[in-house]
Fold this protein.
Amino acid sequence: SAVISQKPSRDICQRGTSLTIQCQVDSQVTMMFWYRQQPGQSLTLIATANQGSEATYESGFVIDKFPISRPNLTFSTLTVSNMSPEDSSIYLCSVEGGLAGSPGPQYFGPGTRLLVL
Amino acid sequence: GENVEQHPSTLSVQEGDSAVIKCTYSDSASNYFPWYKQELGKRPQLIIDIRSNVGEKKDQRIAVTLNKTAKHFSLHITETQPEDSAVYFCAASSNQAGTALIFGKGTTLSVSS
């Protein structure tokens, strides 16, 4: 399976500021996904990031709040903008582990724990 | 869109007993169903998955069954051990390349010795 890393692993931020989370994969992948996991909750898909095109956002998530970049096939960033305490969550990126163009299991990065004060 | 329901939300068993977690899905186009185990403070780890052309899949003490007609699938853990204690999530997707997973709300499994 792909090796996925995220930076930062955790952060404490003040409300009104922004944080950019980085996701790096050790192999080229077509799609990368960003999920949010609020304390004690399940994983909720924020958006799907395809290299070379704009990210596709799920209902309830907007680009102005969660801008995503996908500059190449091994890297993506998620920015949490104008943060409020309700944004305190774990943010996880994931990738599909199959061969390029083939569906396969999805694997997760270690997550970024964000606390907004 | 897809909606995945998972039951029970909590499950307590004695070591050596079996545990069963059930999920239902709404989108008949879904045909890939993975299960993840998440220990406290860790990332979700894929433990087993099943595709719609298969009714059952086993991997040692873990098995998953799928009833596509009824749109439900289940995780079975036999001979439970304390290290099986974790939160388990089911998920569904259409299994086309690049399709995101939709998760159930999770089941907290506690195995007491």
